[in-house]
Amino acid sequence: xxxxxxxxxxxxxxxxxxxxVAFIVSILYPFLxxxxxxxxxxxxxxxxxxxxxxRGFTLEAYNYVFHDPFVYKGYLNSILYAVGSTAIMLVFTSxxxxxxxxxxxxxxxxxxxxLTITMFFGGGLIPTYLLMRNMxxxxxxxxxxxxxxxxxxxxFIFRTFFQSIPSELRESALMxxxxxxxxxxxxxxxxxxxxxxxxxxxxxxxxxxxxxxxxIYLNDQNKYPLQLILRNYLYVIDSNTIQLRAGMSNSxxxxxxxxxxxxxxxxxxxxxxxxxxxxxxxxxxxxxxxxVMIGAIKG
Length: 299
What we know:
Blueprint: H1 7-38, H2 42-47, H3 60-65, H4 69-97, H5 108-120, H6 125-134, H7 152-163, H8 167-175, H9 180-188, H10 193-208, H11 212-217, H12 226-236, H13 239-248, H14 262-298
Protein backbone atom coordinates (compact mmCIF):
# COMPACT_ATOMS: atom_id res chain seq x y z
CA UNK A 1 0.00 0.00 0.00
CA UNK A 2 1.39 3.32 -1.01
CA UNK A 3 1.88 5.68 1.91
CA UNK A 4 0.53 9.17 1.48
CA UNK A 5 3.12 11.81 2.31
CA UNK A 6 2.64 15.35 3.50
CA UNK A 7 2.53 18.29 1.12
CA UNK A 8 6.01 19.36 2.17
CA UNK A 9 7.46 15.88 1.63
CA UNK A 10 5.88 15.58 -1.82
CA UNK A 11 7.09 19.04 -2.80
CA UNK A 12 10.59 18.15 -1.65
CA UNK A 13 10.54 14.91 -3.70
CA UNK A 14 9.36 16.78 -6.81
CA UNK A 15 12.04 19.43 -6.36
CA UNK A 16 14.71 16.78 -5.89
CA UNK A 17 13.59 14.91 -9.00
CA UNK A 18 13.62 18.07 -11.13
CA UNK A 19 17.01 19.09 -9.75
CA UNK A 20 18.58 15.66 -10.36
CA VAL A 21 17.19 15.44 -13.91
CA ALA A 22 18.45 18.96 -14.69
CA PHE A 23 21.83 18.08 -13.21
CA ILE A 24 22.12 14.90 -15.30
CA VAL A 25 21.12 16.75 -18.47
CA SER A 26 23.66 19.51 -17.77
CA ILE A 27 26.39 16.85 -17.61
CA LEU A 28 25.28 14.57 -20.41
CA TYR A 29 24.39 17.16 -23.04
CA PRO A 30 27.90 18.68 -23.46
CA PHE A 31 29.38 15.19 -23.41
CA LEU A 32 27.04 13.89 -26.14
CA UNK A 33 27.42 17.11 -28.13
CA UNK A 34 31.21 16.69 -28.18
CA UNK A 35 30.88 13.12 -29.47
CA UNK A 36 28.26 14.11 -32.07
CA UNK A 37 30.37 17.03 -33.32
CA UNK A 38 33.42 14.80 -33.71
CA UNK A 39 31.44 12.51 -36.07
CA UNK A 40 29.82 15.31 -38.13
CA UNK A 41 31.04 16.81 -41.38
CA UNK A 42 32.29 20.36 -41.83
CA UNK A 43 29.06 21.78 -43.28
CA UNK A 44 26.93 20.97 -40.24
CA UNK A 45 29.69 21.84 -37.78
CA UNK A 46 30.05 25.27 -39.39
CA UNK A 47 26.29 25.80 -39.14
CA UNK A 48 26.37 24.81 -35.43
CA UNK A 49 23.18 22.78 -35.90
CA UNK A 50 24.42 19.69 -34.06
CA UNK A 51 22.79 18.64 -30.81
CA UNK A 52 23.36 15.07 -29.56
CA UNK A 53 23.29 13.23 -32.90
CA UNK A 54 25.97 13.40 -35.62
CA ARG A 55 24.94 15.05 -38.88
CA GLY A 56 26.66 14.12 -42.12
CA PHE A 57 28.40 11.20 -40.42
CA THR A 58 32.14 11.06 -41.11
CA LEU A 59 35.26 9.67 -39.45
CA GLU A 60 37.59 12.27 -40.95
CA ALA A 61 38.21 13.99 -37.60
CA TYR A 62 39.51 10.73 -36.13
CA ASN A 63 41.42 10.01 -39.34
CA TYR A 64 43.16 13.35 -38.84
CA VAL A 65 43.87 12.74 -35.13
CA PHE A 66 45.21 9.20 -35.59
CA HIS A 67 47.53 10.29 -38.40
CA ASP A 68 49.35 12.52 -35.93
CA PRO A 69 52.37 10.61 -34.50
CA PHE A 70 52.50 12.88 -31.47
CA VAL A 71 49.10 11.56 -30.38
CA TYR A 72 50.56 8.06 -29.99
CA LYS A 73 53.62 9.39 -28.19
CA GLY A 74 51.35 11.44 -25.96
CA TYR A 75 49.35 8.32 -25.16
CA LEU A 76 52.44 6.35 -24.16
CA ASN A 77 53.84 9.26 -22.15
CA SER A 78 50.55 9.81 -20.29
CA ILE A 79 50.29 6.11 -19.42
CA LEU A 80 53.89 6.16 -18.19
CA TYR A 81 53.34 9.32 -16.12
CA ALA A 82 50.00 8.13 -14.69
CA VAL A 83 51.22 4.65 -13.71
CA GLY A 84 54.63 5.83 -12.51
CA SER A 85 53.46 8.78 -10.43
CA THR A 86 50.59 6.78 -8.90
CA ALA A 87 52.81 3.82 -7.96
CA ILE A 88 55.40 6.13 -6.39
CA MET A 89 52.71 8.07 -4.56
CA LEU A 90 51.17 4.91 -3.07
CA VAL A 91 54.51 3.48 -1.94
CA PHE A 92 55.87 6.69 -0.39
CA THR A 93 52.57 7.60 1.24
CA SER A 94 52.28 4.14 2.81
CA UNK A 95 55.87 4.25 4.05
CA UNK A 96 55.27 7.61 5.76
CA UNK A 97 51.78 6.86 7.09
CA UNK A 98 52.54 3.50 8.67
CA UNK A 99 55.11 4.73 11.27
CA UNK A 100 52.60 7.36 12.41
CA UNK A 101 50.39 4.64 13.91
CA UNK A 102 53.22 3.04 15.87
CA UNK A 103 52.97 3.93 19.59
CA UNK A 104 56.75 3.87 20.13
CA UNK A 105 57.71 5.98 17.07
CA UNK A 106 59.58 8.91 18.66
CA UNK A 107 59.28 11.62 15.97
CA UNK A 108 55.64 10.91 15.16
CA UNK A 109 54.48 14.27 16.52
CA UNK A 110 57.19 16.20 14.67
CA UNK A 111 56.33 14.58 11.32
CA UNK A 112 52.63 15.20 11.89
CA UNK A 113 53.22 18.90 12.58
CA UNK A 114 55.62 19.19 9.65
CA LEU A 115 53.12 17.63 7.25
CA THR A 116 50.32 19.81 8.62
CA ILE A 117 52.35 22.96 7.89
CA THR A 118 52.78 21.90 4.26
CA MET A 119 48.99 21.81 3.92
CA PHE A 120 48.84 25.56 4.61
CA PHE A 121 52.07 26.87 3.10
CA GLY A 122 53.67 26.02 -0.26
CA GLY A 123 56.79 27.13 -2.04
CA GLY A 124 54.97 28.48 -5.08
CA LEU A 125 55.58 28.06 -8.77
CA ILE A 126 58.95 29.82 -9.19
CA PRO A 127 60.73 28.19 -6.20
CA THR A 128 59.39 24.82 -7.34
CA TYR A 129 60.67 25.41 -10.86
CA LEU A 130 64.10 26.44 -9.51
CA LEU A 131 64.17 23.31 -7.36
CA MET A 132 63.45 21.11 -10.39
CA ARG A 133 66.16 22.91 -12.36
CA ASN A 134 68.76 22.55 -9.58
CA MET A 135 67.94 18.84 -9.33
CA UNK A 136 68.53 18.55 -13.11
CA UNK A 137 65.03 17.19 -13.63
CA UNK A 138 63.89 19.66 -16.29
CA UNK A 139 62.90 18.06 -19.58
CA UNK A 140 63.17 14.55 -18.14
CA UNK A 141 60.51 11.90 -17.53
CA UNK A 142 61.21 12.07 -13.79
CA UNK A 143 59.95 15.63 -13.52
CA UNK A 144 56.48 14.35 -14.38
CA UNK A 145 56.36 11.57 -11.77
CA UNK A 146 58.39 12.71 -8.74
CA UNK A 147 56.78 16.07 -7.78
CA UNK A 148 53.72 15.40 -5.69
CA UNK A 149 54.70 11.87 -4.73
CA UNK A 150 53.78 12.70 -1.11
CA UNK A 151 50.84 14.87 -0.12
CA UNK A 152 50.08 15.52 3.55
CA UNK A 153 46.37 14.99 2.98
CA UNK A 154 46.99 11.52 1.54
CA UNK A 155 49.32 10.62 4.41
CA PHE A 156 46.70 11.50 7.02
CA ILE A 157 44.00 9.51 5.23
CA PHE A 158 46.32 6.51 4.99
CA ARG A 159 47.25 6.86 8.68
CA THR A 160 43.59 7.01 9.65
CA PHE A 161 42.80 3.92 7.59
CA PHE A 162 45.70 1.98 9.07
CA GLN A 163 44.48 2.91 12.57
CA SER A 164 41.15 1.24 11.79
CA ILE A 165 42.92 -2.12 11.32
CA PRO A 166 43.02 -4.05 14.64
CA SER A 167 46.35 -3.59 16.39
CA GLU A 168 46.20 -7.23 17.51
CA LEU A 169 47.17 -8.26 13.98
CA ARG A 170 50.41 -6.28 14.22
CA GLU A 171 51.14 -7.58 17.71
CA SER A 172 50.61 -11.18 16.59
CA ALA A 173 52.90 -10.65 13.61
CA LEU A 174 55.59 -9.16 15.89
CA MET A 175 55.35 -12.19 18.17
CA UNK A 176 55.85 -14.41 15.10
CA UNK A 177 59.05 -12.56 14.27
CA UNK A 178 57.85 -10.23 11.51
CA UNK A 179 59.37 -6.76 11.26
CA UNK A 180 57.47 -3.58 10.38
CA UNK A 181 58.30 -3.76 6.67
CA UNK A 182 56.77 -7.25 6.48
CA UNK A 183 53.75 -6.13 8.51
CA UNK A 184 53.20 -3.13 6.22
CA UNK A 185 53.43 -4.96 2.91
CA UNK A 186 51.96 -8.36 3.90
CA UNK A 187 49.28 -7.35 6.42
CA UNK A 188 48.39 -3.66 6.33
CA UNK A 189 48.37 -3.03 2.59
CA UNK A 190 46.49 -6.23 1.63
CA UNK A 191 43.81 -5.20 4.15
CA UNK A 192 43.67 -1.72 2.62
CA UNK A 193 42.57 -2.60 -0.91
CA UNK A 194 39.67 -0.13 -0.82
CA UNK A 195 42.00 2.68 0.22
CA UNK A 196 44.67 1.74 -2.32
CA UNK A 197 42.14 1.46 -5.14
CA UNK A 198 40.55 4.81 -4.29
CA UNK A 199 43.81 6.71 -4.21
CA UNK A 200 45.11 4.85 -7.24
CA UNK A 201 42.08 6.15 -9.10
CA UNK A 202 42.64 9.67 -7.78
CA UNK A 203 46.30 9.51 -8.78
CA UNK A 204 45.71 8.13 -12.26
CA UNK A 205 42.94 10.61 -13.06
CA UNK A 206 44.92 13.54 -11.67
CA UNK A 207 48.03 12.63 -13.62
CA UNK A 208 46.10 11.87 -16.82
CA UNK A 209 44.39 15.26 -16.74
CA UNK A 210 47.56 17.18 -15.86
CA UNK A 211 49.07 19.36 -18.56
CA UNK A 212 50.53 22.34 -16.68
CA UNK A 213 53.60 20.53 -15.35
CA UNK A 214 54.43 19.40 -18.89
CA UNK A 215 54.00 22.95 -20.15
CA ILE A 216 56.51 24.47 -17.72
CA TYR A 217 58.96 21.59 -17.25
CA LEU A 218 59.21 19.96 -20.71
CA ASN A 219 60.73 21.35 -23.91
CA ASP A 220 60.84 18.15 -25.95
CA GLN A 221 57.52 17.49 -27.70
CA ASN A 222 58.28 13.76 -27.73
CA LYS A 223 57.87 13.81 -23.93
CA TYR A 224 54.61 15.75 -23.87
CA PRO A 225 51.67 14.11 -22.08
CA LEU A 226 48.49 13.62 -24.09
CA GLN A 227 46.74 16.51 -22.36
CA LEU A 228 49.42 18.90 -23.59
CA ILE A 229 48.93 17.56 -27.13
CA LEU A 230 45.21 18.20 -26.64
CA ARG A 231 45.93 21.75 -25.49
CA ASN A 232 47.89 22.37 -28.69
CA TYR A 233 44.95 21.08 -30.70
CA LEU A 234 42.57 23.41 -28.89
CA TYR A 235 44.75 26.50 -29.40
CA VAL A 236 46.64 25.83 -32.64
CA ILE A 237 44.45 23.80 -35.01
CA ASP A 238 42.67 25.90 -37.64
CA SER A 239 41.57 25.53 -41.27
CA ASN A 240 45.01 26.41 -42.61
CA THR A 241 46.65 23.70 -40.49
CA ILE A 242 44.16 21.10 -41.73
CA GLN A 243 44.66 22.07 -45.39
CA LEU A 244 48.43 21.98 -44.95
CA ARG A 245 48.31 18.46 -43.48
CA ALA A 246 45.89 17.31 -46.21
CA GLY A 247 48.22 18.67 -48.88
CA MET A 248 51.24 16.91 -47.37
CA SER A 249 49.44 13.54 -47.10
CA ASN A 250 50.07 11.33 -50.15
CA SER A 251 48.97 8.02 -48.63
CA UNK A 252 45.93 5.99 -49.65
CA UNK A 253 44.18 7.20 -46.50
CA UNK A 254 44.81 10.83 -47.31
CA UNK A 255 42.75 13.39 -45.49
CA UNK A 256 39.57 14.78 -46.99
CA UNK A 257 39.90 18.31 -45.66
CA UNK A 258 36.58 19.39 -47.20
CA UNK A 259 34.76 17.20 -44.63
CA UNK A 260 36.86 18.57 -41.81
CA UNK A 261 36.17 21.51 -39.59
CA UNK A 262 38.71 22.54 -36.91
CA UNK A 263 36.01 22.24 -34.29
CA UNK A 264 35.25 18.60 -35.20
CA UNK A 265 39.00 17.81 -35.01
CA UNK A 266 39.18 19.37 -31.56
CA UNK A 267 36.13 17.43 -30.41
CA UNK A 268 37.60 14.22 -31.84
CA UNK A 269 40.82 14.83 -29.93
CA UNK A 270 38.85 15.43 -26.72
CA UNK A 271 37.05 12.09 -27.17
CA UNK A 272 40.33 10.28 -27.84
CA UNK A 273 41.82 11.87 -24.72
CA UNK A 274 39.02 11.10 -22.29
CA UNK A 275 38.14 7.61 -23.56
CA UNK A 276 40.87 5.63 -21.66
CA UNK A 277 40.23 7.29 -18.33
CA UNK A 278 36.51 6.53 -18.61
CA UNK A 279 37.28 2.87 -19.19
CA UNK A 280 39.08 2.37 -15.86
CA UNK A 281 36.24 3.62 -13.65
CA UNK A 282 34.21 0.33 -13.69
CA UNK A 283 37.23 -1.60 -12.39
CA UNK A 284 37.62 0.69 -9.34
CA UNK A 285 33.96 1.38 -8.64
CA UNK A 286 33.42 -1.40 -6.07
CA UNK A 287 36.32 -0.06 -3.95
CA UNK A 288 35.69 3.63 -4.50
CA UNK A 289 32.70 4.33 -2.19
CA UNK A 290 34.06 2.15 0.64
CA UNK A 291 37.50 3.75 0.57
CA VAL A 292 36.17 7.30 0.59
CA MET A 293 33.63 6.64 3.35
CA ILE A 294 36.09 4.97 5.73
CA GLY A 295 38.53 7.84 5.38
CA ALA A 296 35.75 10.37 5.92
CA ILE A 297 34.29 8.67 9.02
CA LYS A 298 37.58 8.08 10.77
CA GLY A 299 39.12 11.40 9.71
